[in-house]
Amino acid sequence: MDAIILLTLTGLGLAALYFLVASGLSLVFGLADVLNFAHGLFLGVGAYATWWAAGNLPGAGPDGLGFVVAVAFGVAAGTLMAVLVELVLIRPLYSRTIEQVLVTVGLSLAGVALLQATWGADARPFPRPAWTREVTSIFGAQVPNGGLLLIVAAALVLGAILAFLRWTRYGLIIRAGVENREMVTALGIDVRKAFTLVFAIGGAAAALAGALGSVYFGTVSPQQGGSLLIFAFIVVVIGGMGSVVGSAYAAVAVGLLQQFVNYYGTSGLGDICVVALLAVVLLLRPQGIAGKAVTA
I need a labelling partner for 233 at 20 to 30 A (CA). Which of 14, 29, 264, 289 fits? Predict the structure, then answer.
């Protein structure tokens, strides 16, 4: 029983990490119709900025309030990077899908190369708070605190995004733009500002995933964003392109499936099962868990 509880909670921690990355992807695709393959770069920037701030920024550090300051610096860096990418590279290409893919894939590769050139290709130890290296006993299972931190953070981000979408003016514009972008534009609303805002939210969530994911794994590396981005895309597709709630459901399914299968089966089998789940969903419900069916 202890093993079941431990696997469930660690699986939910992994799911929380996937959701933090996938939520921004889902928002960006839902409103702007952009498959942003450079999203992992925002995660990498957030992780490395947090790592740098913890050792160099006045007031920041690996423990207590200093860690909060370091994470806030990392999130701000990831948000700024996302806004710059949208304004400089994506905005001129909104009606050119192929060029969007080429530019974001190229930017992703260039970003990894830049991180490697700056801080090296090897993983570096991440300065995480002492309490995240400890465990908490839950119904007899010794659960790592780093995973619990991810679960709490993902729940707060999901609640904040849903509240923003439902109860703010720009949230209403984004929801309306997802349903019918042309109608929103015809009403005289500048959807481009909403595009930039969505990229900023997505970049902030990805940067937070980079910082807290580094706490979870204990290291930071240039390839970290790319590996997590693959599973984030799977989560977005399974959940339904453009649905944040669907991404949350899918992240839980993917995280738990991966964790249980890797534990009870052979190493790596969980990844294969996740891909198989993606194939099943695409065959039986192409629009995803919470997506809307496309009609002719």
Answer: 264
Give every CB contact of residue 204 below 8 A, 6+ residues apart in sequence: 24, 75, 78, 79, 82
* Residue 261 included in any domain: no
Asked whether residue 275 is domain-assigned, the answer is: no
Give the angle 172-22-96 at the CA atoms, nearest 5°.
Answer: 75
For CA atoms 292, 196, 20, 213, give the dihedral sign: positive
| pTM: predicted TM-score of the whole model, two decimal places | 0.91
Count the helix, strand and coil residues of the chain and give each as a percent rounded to the nearest 5: 75, 5, 20
The whole-number pLDDT of residue 266 equals 79
**Does some domain include residue 293?**
no
Terminal-residue alpha carbon distance, the chain: 50
pLDDT tens column, 245-263: 899 999 999 999 999 998 8
**What residue ranges of the chain have pLDDT lower than 50?**
293-296
pLDDT at site 292: 56
Sign of the CA dihedral running 256, 245, 278, 211 = negative
Question: What's the CA gap between 118 and 146, in Å, rounded?
Answer: 27
Query: What residue numbers bound the domain in which 97 lies?
Result: 2-222
- The pLDDT value given to residue 264: 87
Distance CA 291, CA 35 (A): 16
| Count of domains forming the chain | 1
The Cα angle at residue 191 between residues 242 and 189, in degrees rounded to 5: 130
Helices 145-167 and 2-32 pack at an angle, to 10 degrees, of 30
